[in-house]
Fold:
Amino acid sequence: MQKNPLKIAVLVSGSGSNLQVLIDKQLSQDLNIDIVGVISNRADAFALERAKKSGINTAVIDKDDNGKKYTRVGFEQKALDVLQAWQPDLVVLAGFMRILTPLFIDGVNDKLNVPMINLHPSLLPNYKGLDTHERVLKTGDKQHGCSVHLVTSELDAGQVLTQAVLDVAVGDTSDSLAQRVHTLEHQLLPFTIHLIEQNIFDLKNLDHAHQLMALPYRFYPN
Ligand code: GRF
Structure:
């Protein structure tokens, strides 16, 4: 018997192509998920159009009633209120380009008591933060890729759950790498959410010796 879908809330800032993959997989029932809502810190994020087109709840937390940009704390308090109303089982940061403070991270932990994951365009722990593709090229790394990790109060430093890896090709530029990593992300994020939905990871007890998979789980798509 099919169990209840995993309720996910997605935080975005931009195009939302990763969100689109999740929407498509929900519709085709390739993933047993229910996207309960999408939060954007930018009113002009194309991800909002994608969500609305599919009838998914959206919350824009960009400017307040006086037209002033929300402060970091203001954004986080509002976002927590929205999440509490939506009651997701999992919070997913997919192209969410704002650094979160412990106010939000602890809030998700304490008030909602659900895990939060982030999609990052590098093989963590290498290249936390921005400009990952440029830095990979500058160092001359032979491999690059993306990671999904648990969000903790230290930037891009929570337990890495999964990674997808590619070989850096002669002639790769930061644009070509960005494009190739983006394509990998479209596979890695739904794959990871599937593993979570299937309880393959015990996210509440990651030190547990009986994890079904050694972490991080790495895959090497063709
Ligand atoms: C991805 O490259 C992700 O790694 C980065 O932002 C981008 C999001 O892409 N943090 P999209 O908005 O899902 O198209």
In short: The longest strand covers residues 33-40. The first helix runs from residue 17 to 27. Residues 14-19, 94-95, 119-121, 182, 185 surround 5-O-phosphono-beta-D-ribofuranosylamine (CB under 6 Å).
